[in-house]
């Protein structure tokens, strides 16, 4: 197989010149370019990606760090990122961090060592300093790290207000909230939205907030306790769909009929939310679009194209199904 | 930052010798090795991954080609592959092929160009020739490409026989099968297992086989038609869990009670199968272990370690829940 040296020799130029032609960067005279291109064709030279990434100190690869690809929110996101990346000429390295600070730092290190061109990360432990220290573009998705960094999020509080008001409009008087993990920005925002409606429009003098840690089993347990202690509860807003499904299972165990005796609404709009019986009413995030936008933004930053803004807050939409 | 040339210069050896020390390959005298190592320490030289992959023509990266990470079988598999790979020092490039022959070939090409060390693939269009042509180890998972290639699969036929017999043991007399996509080996094997039990133990003179294409919406449609035409059906074996959930939804639409009037059993054991009400009885594949085994086998092949066998057929297990 012909090497870049063979091409340089045949064209009578330096390897650096061949590299400039290949990467379309730096000045190369028209005659020289043509000589190089015809040598490339004649020798059937195929530049390999690793050699090119050494020249360019880049690998045409994007790192995607998520807490856990098994959390049903992330496969759709990962699919969108990979679809968009491949169209733009990049591959995606998948990293599962378990939201663990050390694992996240280890991934940042190894991705840099591999000259990835940029990173998309969903993290609630990384700090702005850690992001700034790595010298390549990073886009934060789903979880905001700092206002100053490129970020893709959704209207969490607005969605939570809509969810709680919707339960109220369905006649619910005692509405509980199964909140997400403490300290995660989107969990706090969703909880605030719920509290705002309850405090201003529904005050019932009791706290009906329990923590389901964004996880089904925790939600089942929390809902069983909540409904046993407070049988008056007639509506539940769960901060994600997985916890809403957990709440449905808990209600079923207690013989409470959904939606006749208890209305349940979730958040996310994962495909699983349409697989349950009854299907789940939920606040739908445009998950695929979030992944698409994160990737095009990242690639624009990587390719130093002009970017109008780097902070995007997407709207959410209430989809009524049969659980309310 | 110090380069490999600086190390070579300080140690008074060639760059190739430094590379041999770094990669721990080829003969290097003890004195020379020590000189190189102390120079590396003194200069605080950090070999970068891309440069190393050029020396070694490898990138410490594995490609994982799946049809679609959004199909709930694959996130658990991808998680297992990534967990195992990172422990062994490799990153994972995720590729979604949509089971499309051209996309698969394009991924094989780009992964080779990037000097990935090996590939794990779940495909039913790739041929043994295509695999052999790429000059790196490939492990086929979930779908067998050829008996001669490294392969990780499960006992599909045996599982299907167990599923069908289990419905029979529950008193079902008219058992239908929602089969997977035509031409996919595991769909054919599961269908054969069903037919064997029906032909030998249950013959009822009718064909109750419909195609759900391994997909929920197709399964809902197929089940609605099937149950409308054949209200005598009292048991359904669906070739995957997603289609079993589709069958549950179809039964619910027709007012048929599961499991009282209709028993349903799935195949796969995806986490979703425990999220439905009623929870799904299913034939559980050890999905995580399949991913682990595929990765350790691949890494052993990549690192040219001795490998006893390269074909693994894992057992499956019937988990009884509430849909039967």
Q: β content of chain A, as a range?
A: 15-25%
Mean pLDDT of chain A: 91
Shape of chain A: elongated
CATH-derived architecture of the largest domain in chain A: 3-Layer(aba) Sandwich
Instruction: Find the CATH superfamily of the largest domain in chain A.
Output: Response regulator
Of all chain pairs, the largest interface belongs to: A-B, 45 and 45 residues
Biggest sheet descriptor of chain A = 6 strands, parallel
Helices and strands of chain A, in order, run as HHHHEHEHEHEEHEHEHEHEEHEE
| Tally of individual helices of chain A | 12
Helix fraction of chain A, binned, reads 40-55%
> Structural class from helices and strands of chain A?
alpha/beta
Radius of gyration of chain A from CA coordinates: 25 Å
Q: Quaternary arrangement of the chains shown?
A: homodimer
- Work out the number of β strands of chain A: 12
Q: State the name of the first-level CATH class of the largest domain in chain A.
A: Alpha Beta
Through-space gap between termini of chain A: 65 Å
What's the CATH topology label of the largest domain in chain A? Rossmann fold
Strand order of the largest sheet of chain A: 2-1-3-4-5-11
Q: What count of domains describes the coordinates of chain A? A: 3
Spans of chain A of at least 5 consecutive residues whose pLDDT stays below 50 are: none
